[in-house]
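Good morning N.,

You mentioned wanting to compare the apo and holo forms, so I went ahead and generated the holo version with zinc ion. This is what I fed in:
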Amino acid sequence: MSQAKLKKLGLTLPPLPTSTVGSFPKPDYLVEARARFARKEISQKELEALERKATEFWVAQQEAIGLDVLVDGEQYRGDMVAYFAEVMPGFQMGGLVRSYGNRYYRKPIITGKIQWPGPMTVKWWKFAQGLTSKPIKGMLTGPYTIMDWSFNDFYPDRKSACFALAQVIRKEVETLVEAGAKVIQIDEPALSVRPEELPFAIEAMRTVTDGMPAYFITHICYGAFEFIYPGMLRFPVDNFDLEMSNSGLDLIALFKKHPFNKDLSFGVLDVHSHVVETPELVRGRIEKALQVIPKEALWVDPDCGLKTRTVEEAQGKLRSMVAAVREVRQALDKAPKGKRRRIEVGSVVKKRRKKIRKHKYKKMRRRMRHKKK
Amino acid sequence: MELVLANHSSYPRVGASREQQRLRRAYAQRERGEISPDDFSRVQDSVVAEVIQEQAHAGCELLTDGQIRWYDPVSHLAGKLNQVEINGLLRYFDTNFYFRQPVIKGRVAGNGPLVAEDFRYARAISPRPIKAVLTGPYTLAVSSIRQTPVYRQLSTLVLDLGEVLAQEVRALAGAGAEVIQVEEPAILKHPKDLRVLHKALKPLNQAKGSSRLALYTYFADATPLYESLQELPVDILGFDFTYAPKLPEKIAKLGSQKVLGLGLIDGRNTRMEAAPQVLPILEKILPRLSGGLVYLNPSCGLEYLPREKAGAKLRLLKELRDAFLQRGKR
Ligand SMILES: [Zn+2]
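and this is what came out, ligand included:
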């Protein structure tokens, strides 16, 4: 769908482009250095040197594994909202709030007019892009999510806080584009939480992306998509990056009912599991996606950031993913022209698919019943 | 009309100081097997005492134990029942808080007290009355995964949980709870199920003895359900006004047969409400209420705020009441 846009931007990507959601695990030396930095035992400069080293490692890894659109790996970021809130005027870091069990986080507080502090992500983008000839994605957190994950002492309501943030994120997008970024991902994991707020979340994202010469992706973690679908298709981005490997089946059912009309980055790796998926398993997931998404519109990536996995698990998972994509590309190449949308990869797969479909239906019914309660 | 300042339910269990984070450390020690169960519950006891003191100092008149011992509003109760296992994390409504989802494997049954012992402890050390808090049968049921043919129907589970919770209500009434608060945020999203909830609350109402039974909803707009909620077999209704801009008008129009708990203060945001925002609503509502009593409480549990902001919200309740009572006298 947006292939024309990519072409116009001067980007040629292979079919089923592979990418990742953003974060990679931090190597042990960096985890330790961050702890020491927090205790003021090392300087900012010393920490940053290690962050660069880890970024170099991950860019090289992504190239070696054979991914098509790379990320800087966010070795220098902690929390995806706090990273921005810590540097933006208008925010203060708040006290500890429990997220579950014995886990706590510091929730930022909007205490004044939010302002753009100058480029927040461009330095790292340039550094990473300088290490490779493949495109590096610009990585931002969206205005709706920053608003939803912060307290608001200043703006009269959630909507106006969200719009103020949209202005700031827009400026960051402009500087990323100026620096040469052609693919920009703006994460909105909070999007599906309050369906009634979708209209202003869409308006805010329009402020961010409107008229900008870049290919925009937005990542949303699995939530109650059925409540914001198909309304979320009005979100002004080119590509939705959705978590699919766990719960993909009912989303596909949803897409059958109301066609998905954007590009889709289809999550095929479970980031919460230590188990490294086999290429066969990943390939099965991609084939399922191709039942409802035209191949021209499909990207392949993990469900979410890989930062909670070990370095080895992340590498293993990505290798399986790239191997699977290569197999599917070959199969697509061989498929007769007219049948390209519904690829057939041998009779074994066909039979299995029939079985899967039956199972899928049962599982979907179960889930829907559960959701409706 | 008597305006009573009440806490809602939960209270932040850690604060900014190292001392105020002792429970967090104790949890971590327990996970590593470095603390005995007795020492761990002593830490919990001391934090319960600390948050009770804090509420009293803030001017609160009906306190809670802060639900300090609760893992979350769902699994803490469901996990103590027979035939229930506890599963993975799920988002609690539209918050950034996650609860563990119960899996129901067979017919649920009580298996000893749920919170009555905790209530006794809190009551014994508190300078003011303590309100007991339970998550209601409907919210517990819809938050669970039903993996048994016994509960093909959601309603069967809701009713069974009603019976189980009625035993707890009886125990709490016996322990001297003046107010027993049952929380049902989930019902606002499923108005069709109000009849089931009505039926499930009956045994609780029968078990309450001389206690008063309160039903609190939050995290959604209760305005469309206001009339039906008035029909439920409870004595007190608590509302979250932060989601319900039209609710004051509705109450002003229809009045209330029940004592109300007014959640006019946002328990989810750090901003401190100003008098001009709150007092006109009180002026509008109070003349329409009967029973001589109304509770002023936050819109929801205060655990969504950092500790110092939670305390500030309770102090704000007192300031607003003072301002309200003073307004005619100037
Ligand atoms: Zn995610």
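The pocket of zinc ion is lined by residues A 21, 189, 219, 221, 304 (CB under 6 Å).

Happy to go through it together on a call whenever suits you.

Best,
F.
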